[in-house]
Design goal:
- This protein is mainly β.
- The chain folds into two domains: 10-206 and 216-431, Methylamine Dehydrogenase, Chain H, CATH 2.130.10.10; 448-664, Neuraminidase (6 Propeller).
- It has two helices and 56 strands.
- Strands 40, 41, 42, 43 and 56 form a five-stranded antiparallel sheet that branches.
- The longest helix has 7 residues, at 555-561.
- The radius of gyration is 27 Å and the shape is elongated.
Length: 666
């Protein structure tokens, strides 16, 4: 969900221009790595219900949900705390002084000013006083702050966003606030609670329900405000926003004197997924720290070709109708409930069992990578990183994720993190300190050394230096070729100080390579978690008659055995094949080595004679062909264009470029 700090980050401010009149840029979490996989011990134990909202206020943390009893760490004494409580972040001890009394669950929390916190939900009374939907309470005593006196509303509040120092945006299932029409969205003065005219966008009509099936309340479910305050993404149960076609999602411009529906529109959330169970199937939305994209997560069941049961990334700078996602991460029939984004990862939560599983039908299909309810995704493509703490049992799922400078908070409905490893009842925290860095994804450019695996009839790896046409050295064998007969190679690429290469057995391997020395060769197999590190998720029951074991994608086997060249660029693995004229691509993350389950065609012809060399560098695509020559074409926007131009070869400089794999490396 949203970041709660209101302090501007210098690096973020440099990347984003704050919209006049809007909020100052929200502070980015500032993560330089993934969070740790072992949770902190300093969290309270929540005995029942679910956690829906967490506000990290520095020394104190406030939690909202549907629970009624909590205990401090190490204590068996249950304390009555209905729907809202606070604890000391350093020790996890429940705050004895913070004792607000509410009569309904809390769904949203936002830090207020000077020791206060806003709470939104389904309550009607706070501390015995009528206060429906939203309240401001003192974080020391839980007392209601009377100066904030919003008008009554006729429905529930589902989410809150603070915009600037004097504006609170609210979303929910109300249709009137203070006797004035406000359908699902409204804005309040942050100091007084007075209704303002800034946000009056009306959300109307059920998404799914048409007289039969599931029926839910119409309105907003989640809000995500851009870090510079200039755009608000709203998801929920609606078809129209101010009469415009905006099915389940609307992007609202919030940088002016009044909020207006933007021209951004998509048809991707129109399908009626499992209408007998869901009136609406969107569940959370989160903005990236730099404001360049947002992610939407959903439920909905098994509906091929839709965004049901997926996480999807969307460009935040795009405009116009018919928008499509940058990537989609599919579970194969399991729900996503929450999302949080840092500089390094897209964290998602729910009760899913696998990711990279678009053809899954409540089962693992080719490409599936086991992830028990929580995962860290590569922002470039949505594939799972190696980060895999898991949650067993899964229960309903992870209902809240919150990224802070110190780490990642999780709210859920079960008693453990890991496979019954860490007793953390309904709330957990993964610290940033001690977490692992994301493996680098840099590639090598030209001029520089280029390596040829099995040049001509040789079995070794040879190096030559390429500075441009007419400036190529003759190849020299390396002292060591890593103990591999490279005649069996089927393409290779160097990324992040490692060489990935296919072999004739249809398997993908990886090993460190610095231009002369080699690391140990390892099979690239993120689909099977059997490395002996507890827990081995391949052996863990997911509660529905199976385990979290995944399945290698159909890129492995026969397809990989026919590869003639491959390279990595911007989150994608590109490759050519014997007997096929196209360039194909799949998503790929160097972290786990996961290969996308789906194959895409970049160009359909012109590359049937590739001989190992296929790499992009300096705005060009370089291709070695069966005639032994190296050619280049313009490479722009992730695709080759223009004529192919010979830059080296037997008839030009006497050098042959025929090989099983060719890759630049540094």
């Amino acid at each position: 969900m949203r970041l709660l700090s209101l302090v501007a980050s210098a690096s973020l401010a440099a990347a984003l221009v704050t919209v006049p009149g809007a909020s100052p840029a929200l502070a980015a979490p500032g993560h330089d790595r993934l969070v740790r996989t072992v949770p902190s011990w300093h969290t309270p134990q929540i005995a029942d219900g679910r956690v829906y909202a967490i506000a990290d206020l520095g020394a104190k943390v406030v939690v909202g949900g549907s629970f009624t009893k909590v205990a401090s760490p190490g204590s068996s004494t249950l304390l009555d705390r209905k729907y809202l409580f606070a604890f000391d972040k350093a020790t996890g001890k429940v705050d004895s002084g913070f004792r607000p009394t509410l009569d309904g669950e809390v769904r949203a929390l936002v830090a207020g000013l000077s020791g206060s916190v806003f709470a939104g939900g389904s309550f009607k009374h706070v501390n015995g006083v009528a206060r429906r939907g939203v309240v401001l309470v003192n974080t020391s005593t839980g007392a209601r702050i009377p100066s904030f006196a919003p008008p009554s509303m006729n429905g529930h509040v589902r989410d809150l966003v603070a915009q600037g120092s004097n504006r609170l945006l609210i979303g929910g299932t109300f249709t009137a606030v203070g006797g004035k029409t406000r359908k699902g969205l409204a804005s309040l003065n942050r100091s007084t609670g007075a209704l303002t005219s800034f946000l009056t966008v009306a959300l109307i009509e059920h998404h799914n329900w048409n007289g039969s099936g599931a029926k839910g309340a119409v309105g907003a479910a989640k809000l995500a405000l851009a870090p510079n305050g200039g755009r608000l993404v709203v998801i929920g149960n609606f078809r129209k926003a101010n009469g415009l076609d905006r099915n389940q999602i609307v992007v609202i411009d919030t940088g002016g004197l009044a909020a207006v529906v933007s021209g951004w529109q998509t048809d991707a959330f129109k399908p009626a997924c499992s209408s007998r169970s869901f009136d609406s199937w969107v569940r959370d939305v989160a903005y990236s720290p730099d404001g360049s994209y947002f992610v939407v997560v959903t439920t909905g069941g098994i509906h091929p070709g839709t965004l049901c049961d997926t996480a999807s990334r969307w460009s935040a700078t795009a405009s116009g109708a018919g928008r499509t996602p940058t990537w989609t991460a599919a579970s194969g029939g399991d729900t996503f409930l929450s999302a949080a984004i840092t500089e390094q990862a897209v964290y998602v939560g729910g009760h899913f069992r696998w990711l990279n599983n678009p053809t899954g039908r409540d089962s693992a299909q080719p490409g599936a990578v086991g992830r028990a309810s929580i995962a860290a995704l590569d922002p470039a493509n949505g594939l799972p990183y190696t980060w895999n703490p898991g949650r067993n049992p899964r229960g309903y799922g992870v209902t809240e994720l919150l990224a802070t400078p110190g780490g990642l908070w999780l709210g859920y409905d079960t008693a453990y993190l890991g496979n019954y490893q860490y007793p953390r009842k309904r709330i957990g925290f993964f610290p940033l300190s001690g977490g692992a860095p994301v493996p680098p994804a840099h590639t090598a450019g030209l001029p520089g050394p280029v390596y040829l695996a099995a040049e001509g009839v040789e079995r070794d790896v040879r190096a030559r230096y390429y500075s441009g046409p007419g400036q190529v050295t003759r190849s020299q064998p390396l002292e060591s070729s890593g103990g591999v007969d490279w005649r069996e190679a089927r393409g290779g690429f160097w990324v992040g100080d490692e060489l990935f290469y296919g072999m004739s057995d249809g398997q993908l391997r990886r090993r460190g390579f610095d231009g002369s020395s080699w690391g140990a060769a390892k099979l690239v197999d993120p689909y099977h978690d059997h490395d002996g590190v507890r827990p081995d998720w391949d052996q863990v029951s997911h509660g529905k008659g199976g385990t979290y074991e995944g399945v290698a994608p159909d890129f492995y086997g026969a397809e990989l055995a026919t590869v003639t060249g491959m390279f990595y660029h911007a989150g994608r693995l590109y490759y050519t094949r014997t007997g096929f004229g196209g360039i194909y691509w799949r998503w790929f993350t160097p972290s786990s080595g996961a290969v996308g389950a789906q194959r895409f065609t970049l160009v359909s012809s012109g590359f049937a004679d590739v001989a190992g060399g296929l790499f992009a560098a300096g705005g060009y695509l370089y291709v070695s062909r069966l005639d032994g020559a190296l050619y280049r074409m313009r490479w722009a926007g992730g695709a080759p264009s223009g004529p192919r131009i010979k830059v080296s070869g037997p008839g030009m400089d006497g050098l042959s470029w025929r090989a099983r794999a060719i890759f630049p490396a540094t």
